[in-house]
Design a protein that fits this description.
By secondary structure, the protein is of the alpha+beta class. The chain has one domain. It has a five-stranded antiparallel beta sheet.
């Protein structure tokens, strides 16, 4: 019985949160107290399937180009993951004018 408790505790501590489903949005800026978003938004993405193949460009330059941005005021990151990364999408979201 003691062994099972230890095994359960170890497995709970080692499994990361959001391992079955994760959909989070995080700021990439550190100076958010003076942030203005702007009138345009651009998004760039990278995708991964089965931990074997990945494609895309989630860079800031690609996000600015996709949104027609000349000036970037703020950046966010959006991560979506299903079943330990069986499918993963990471977006860079750029706000500006």
């Amino acid at each position: 019985m003691r062994f099972l408790r230890k095994l359960l505790l170890i497995s709970v501590l080692l499994i990361p949160s959001g391992c079955l489903y994760m959909d989070t949005k995080l700021p990439l800026d550190t100076d958010v107290s003076v942030t203005t978003l702007g009138s345009k938004t651009g998004v760039s993405s990278v995708h991964s399937i089965l931990w074997l193949v990945a494609w895309g460009d989630c860079g800031v330059e690609a996000a600015a180009k996709n949104g027609g941005l000349k000036v970037i005021n703020h950046l966010d990151s959006h991560a979506f993951q299903i079943l330990f990364g069986l499918y993963t999408r990471i977006d860079t979201i750029a706000y500006g004018d």
